[in-house]
Write a structure and sequence with these properties.
Blueprint lengths: L12 H14 L11 H8 L3 H13 L3 E4 L3 E4 L4 H25 L2 H19 L3 H17 L4 H22 L5 H8 L24 H16 L5 H4 L8 H7 L15 H4 L34 H11 L3 H14 L1
Antiparallel strand pairs: 1-2
Helix pairs in contact: 1-3, 2-3, 4-7, 5-6, 6-7
């Protein structure tokens, strides 16, 4: 750990010790239950006892260490129930921060976040878990700090730090959920900037038939890793790009499969009331379906299916005529 301290002389020794001990716990170098003996830590970090003592106090405040009477501090054990509690706290705070950030986001914020995200991807690709964790945290806090609320950031950080050692266990596994998530996550951009694998040529960024089919080949190959008989079982394949979606339906702007915005002025204004059930609205023959449907989008096409059934049903007057006609025939 001491070898990585060359670039941190501008911080206090206690801050440097805290960062190194925190990362050692997150990355599993100091496993749960490990005693945090001040003398041993001071020797390994090449520091005096005083900054180490302060760093251990900060670890306790972050929930990464606990003090045991008559024994000193030790690394806390991993607790699934604690993790659930932490995520509930983070869900409330981080949602608030990102919502505020979305209203204040600048080009500088975007560039900073994009750079940190790229650093995280590159570090993970070369197996540098420590740098991947740093960049990953930096990316998220770039978003939170864009909220321009110092209080929110201060409240988020302790819960974030306590969660990080759980995340490290996932990031450390090759072929883990992290890798499978990256393989399966196939949200497609309207304008293709490039291909990280260097296999597909986006030319001018448009979704040409050739680019669409080559990209579909890649997705099918990835699925085949998990479905042994996929290649032999496929009789025909139809690939649809964002450009194809927009060409088929002008409402799917830029190939957006959700078909609308998620803003509150959409789903809150037209939210269902007792007088307007089943995706009806106060406006006659105006139906509310798609991504803006309260309380948000899904992939089951439920709102459109329900509205379609109602539209296909005969009008009340037509139902009455049909019934009268049936009675006359009898």
């Amino acid at each position: 750990m001491a070898a990585e301290r060359a670039g941190i002389r501008h911080r206090t020794m206690a801050e440097a010790a805290l960062d190194e001990l925190r990362e050692a716990i997150i990355l599993g170098e100091l496993v749960p239950g490990t005693p945090l003996r001040l003398e041993d830590l001071a020797a390994s970090l090449g520091m005096s006892i005083s900054p180490i003592r302060e760093a251990v106090r900060q670890l306790e405040a972050l929930g990464l260490a606990e003090h045991v009477p008559h024994h000193g501090a030790k690394v806390v054990a991993i607790d699934v129930e604690e993790l659930r509690d932490l995520f509930q706290v983070r869900l409330a705070l981080e949602t608030m921060a990102v919502r505020r950030a979305a209203q204040r986001f600048t080009d500088e914020d975007r560039e900073r976040a994009a750079e940190l995200l790229e650093q995280c991807v590159e570090a993970r690709a070369r197996g540098d878990l420590r740098q991947a964790m740093r960049a990953h945290g930096g990316f998220h806090f770039a978003l939170y700090e864009a909220s321009r609320s110092a209080w929110l950031v201060r409240l988020i950080r302790p819960a974030w730090e306590s969660c990080e050692r759980y995340r490290a266990a996932l990031l450390a596994q090759q072929g883990s959920l992290q890798d499978r998530h990256q393989e399966i996550d196939q949200e497609l951009p309207w304008h293709v900037k490039g291909d990280a694998a260097g296999e597909l040529d986006p030319v001018d960024g448009s979704w040409t038939p050739e680019l669409r089919e080559r990209y579909a080949d890649r997705i099918q190959a990835r699925l085949a890793r998990h479905i042994p008989n996929l290649e032999s079982a496929v009789l025909e394949r139809v690939a649809i790009s964002p450009a194809d979606l927009e060409a088929e339906n002008v409402n799917l702007r830029h190939g957006d499969p959700y078909g609308g915005a998620l803003a509150l002025d959409q789903n809150f204004l037209w939210r269902p009331f007792a007088q307007t059930p089943a995706h009806r609205t106060p406006v006659e023959r105006l139906w509310h379906i798609g991504a803006s449907t309260h309380p948000g989008p899904g992939l089951g096409a439920g709102s459109g299916t329900l509205v379609a059934k109602q539209l296909l049903e005969p009008a009340v007057t037509q139902k009455a005529v049909d019934r009268l006609s049936a009675l006359v025939r009898r």
